[in-house]
Each structure stands twice: as structure tokens, then as C-alpha cells.
């Protein structure tokens, strides 16, 4: 589980102007992470616009990341949904060679009870040969995983090793840290709360912002884990404007505007998402110039 302590990056899926997958840009993004101190990569999550990709495109993304990474960093793949049988079938049947863990979002839209969430992840755990990282993001799913449910899952299933906690609730994150086993990973899913969660006993982050600013973000997390609090907060406040800007018009439009400015990938997204506005893009460009 130490593989997933530190900074994980939620990878975008870059597109060409015709909205086909830009394989060469994806390779550049992977290299950029490898060269700048991040600890692991997350493939085909929300930031990767997986909902708009065909199965063939998902296979292309997986193959490209695995080959370009070449074993340098642990890889996590997103597999989740609101149909438990479909999720478990995918976990059993999909070729997961090259991946070290699964990130599985809590069932969305249907708003299950806490018992329903527990039973869903029980099935996912039993279906998986890989470690499972839960993903709680009530702003997207419409329901919240409580600390009690997370602690129950962490205790009952050995291969459920952590949670990406993105409720934006510091008190809830602290309760998860307190109530779960000592070796269970409570991973921030909120870039702005990453440092406070790490200092409270969390294990790091699965980050959007770190994709565009990997060196700064990874250094902040490492200093937080090492209890270099003042230095960590200096970096935190340095990159805080980026967090506000990148999420101003939603994800991944903002972080793709960062990659466009860096010359790594274009800022194209797929509908129903749209690119960042000219006004926001100008502010992002200005910030990237300032932070260099």
C-alpha cells in the first residue's frame, strides 16, 4: 500500500481537433509526470472523460499509458458505475495487466443507502484480484459514503485498501482517518484540502492540479508527510490560485487549458463539456507564466 502514499495524478485524455484521442500528447503527459516527482498515475477516471470514450478508445489509453510509463510508476485504473453486476463483470473480464489497483466510484445517480453502498463494494471486492480504492465524491454521485460505512468496508475486506475522499468535508475526512484501520489509506480527492488532510494523518492525494503542476504539488505533499509544515504551507499558498482557476469552469477544461499553455496537449474536450472560456484561459495563462 506504500505505492499509493504521496501524490497520485488523475490523468486527462487529450484530444486532437477532431476529438480523436491524441496518443502522442498522452505520452507527453505521462513523461511530464514521471519527470516531476509524482508517485502514481490514475487512468480513466472522471478527469480522463471516460464516460465519453468508446471501449476501443479506453484500450488505446490503457495501452499508451502502460507502454509510456514502462513500469516507472504504479498505475491505478478507474472502474465504477451504478450497476453492480456490470461493474463486477468488468472487474472480472477486463485485462488489468499492468495495473496495481482499481479506483471505484460509489454508485451514482441512484442514491443507494449506506447498506446498498456496502453491499456494492462487497461485490466489487470479491470480484477483484487487485487492491480496491474506494472513491467518495457526493458532489457527482448524489450520495455520501459515511465514515462508518468506510470503516466497515476497510475492516471487512482486506483488498479494500483506501479511499479517495472528495466530499470537501474536513471533519468527515478526519473521522475516516480516526475510524479506519491504521494502514488504511485516506487519500484526499480535493486539491485544496490535500495538505490539511495529510497533516491530519491522510496518505496523500489523487490530484487534478498536480497533473499541470506536478513538481510543486508533489513537493508540498512530501513536505506535509514529513511534517515540514511551514514549508509545505508556503507551497500550498503559492499554488492555491491554480486550484481556484482550474476548477472555476469545471474539470477537466481548466487543467487542459494548463496543458495547452505548457505546450503538452491541446485543450479540446468532448461534449457535453466545453473548453474553458477565453477569460478563464487568459487568467490560467497568466498564472502559469508567474509560477515558472
TrEMBL record:
<protein>
    <recommendedName>
        <fullName>4-hydroxy-tetrahydrodipicolinate synthase</fullName>
        <ecNumber>4.3.3.7</ecNumber>
    </recommendedName>
</protein>
<dbReference type="InterPro" id="IPR002220">
    <property type="entry name" value="DapA-like"/>
</dbReference>
<dbReference type="GO" id="GO:0008840">
    <property type="term" value="F:4-hydroxy-tetrahydrodipicolinate synthase activity"/>
</dbReference>
<comment type="pathway">
    <text>Amino-acid biosynthesis; L-lysine biosynthesis via DAP pathway; (S)-tetrahydrodipicolinate from L-aspartate: step 3/4.</text>
</comment>
<feature type="site" description="Part of a proton relay during catalysis">
    <location>
        <position position="46"/>
    </location>
</feature>
<feature type="active site" description="Proton donor/acceptor">
    <location>
        <position position="135"/>
    </location>
</feature>
<keyword id="KW-0220">Diaminopimelate biosynthesis</keyword>
<keyword id="KW-0457">Lysine biosynthesis</keyword>
<keyword id="KW-0028">Amino-acid biosynthesis</keyword>
<feature type="binding site">
    <location>
        <position position="47"/>
    </location>
    <ligand>
        <name>pyruvate</name>
    </ligand>
</feature>
<dbReference type="Pfam" id="PF00701">
    <property type="entry name" value="DHDPS"/>
</dbReference>
<comment type="similarity">
    <text>Belongs to the DapA family.</text>
</comment>
<feature type="binding site">
    <location>
        <position position="206"/>
    </location>
    <ligand>
        <name>pyruvate</name>
    </ligand>
</feature>
<keyword id="KW-0456">Lyase</keyword>
<keyword id="KW-0704">Schiff base</keyword>
<feature type="active site" description="Schiff-base intermediate with substrate">
    <location>
        <position position="164"/>
    </location>
</feature>
<keyword id="KW-0963">Cytoplasm</keyword>
<comment type="subunit">
    <text>Homotetramer; dimer of dimers.</text>
</comment>
<dbReference type="InterPro" id="IPR005263">
    <property type="entry name" value="DapA"/>
</dbReference>
<dbReference type="InterPro" id="IPR020625">
    <property type="entry name" value="Schiff_base-form_aldolases_AS"/>
</dbReference>
<comment type="function">
    <text>Catalyzes the condensation of (S)-aspartate-beta-semialdehyde [(S)-ASA] and pyruvate to 4-hydroxy-tetrahydrodipicolinate (HTPA).</text>
</comment>
<feature type="site" description="Part of a proton relay during catalysis">
    <location>
        <position position="109"/>
    </location>
</feature>
Amino acid at each position: 500500500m506504500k505505492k499509493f502514499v504521496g501524490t497520485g495524478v488523475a490523468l486527462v485524455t487529450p484530444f486532437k481537433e477532431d476529438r480523436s484521442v491524441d496518443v502522442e500528447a498522452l505520452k507527453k503527459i505521462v513523461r511530464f509526470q514521471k519527470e516531476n516527482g509524482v508517485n502514481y498515475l490514475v487512468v480513466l477516471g472522471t478527469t480522463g472523460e471516460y464516460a465519453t470514450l468508446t471501449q476501443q478508445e479506453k484500450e488505446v489509453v490503457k495501452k499508451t499509458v502502460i507502454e509510456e510509463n514502462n513500469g516507472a510508476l504504479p498505475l491505478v485504473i478507474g472502474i465504477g458505475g451504478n450497476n453492480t453486476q456490470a461493474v463486477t463483470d468488468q472487474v472480472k473480464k477486463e485485462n488489468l495487466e499492468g495495473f496495481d489497483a482499481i479506483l471505484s466510484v460509489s454508485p451514482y445517480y441512484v442514491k443507494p443507502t449506506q447498506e446498498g453502498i456496502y453491499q456494492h463494494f462487497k461485490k466489487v471486492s470479491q470480484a477483484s484480484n487487485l487492491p480496491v480504492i474506494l472513491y467518495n465524491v457526493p458532489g457527482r454521485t448524489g450520495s455520501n459514503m459515511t465514515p462508518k460505512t468506510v470503516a466497515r468496508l476497510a475492516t471487512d475486506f482486506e483488498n479494500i485498501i483506501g479511499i479517495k475522499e472528495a466530499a470537501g468535508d474536513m471533519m468527515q475526512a478526519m473521522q475516516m482517518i480516526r475510524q479506519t484501520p491504521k494502514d488504511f489509506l485516506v487519500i484526499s480527492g480535493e486539491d485544496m484540502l490535500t495538505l490539511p488532510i495529510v497533516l491530519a494523518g491522510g496518505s496523500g492525494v489523487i490530484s487534478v492540479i498536480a497533473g499541470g503542476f506536478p513538481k510543486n504539488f508533489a513537493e508540498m505533499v512530501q513536505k506535509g508527510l514529513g511534517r515540514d509544515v511551514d514549508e509545505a504551507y508556503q507551497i500550498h499558498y503559492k499554488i492555491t490560485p491554480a486550484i481556484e482557476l482550474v476548477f472555476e469552469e469545471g474539470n477537466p477544461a481548466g487543467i487542459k487549458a494548463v496543458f495547452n499553455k505548457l505546450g503538452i496537449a491541446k485543450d479540446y474536450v468532448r461534449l457535453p463539456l466545453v473548453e474553458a472560456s477565453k477569460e478563464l484561459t487568459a487568467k490560467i495563462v497568466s498564472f502559469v507564466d508567474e509560477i515558472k
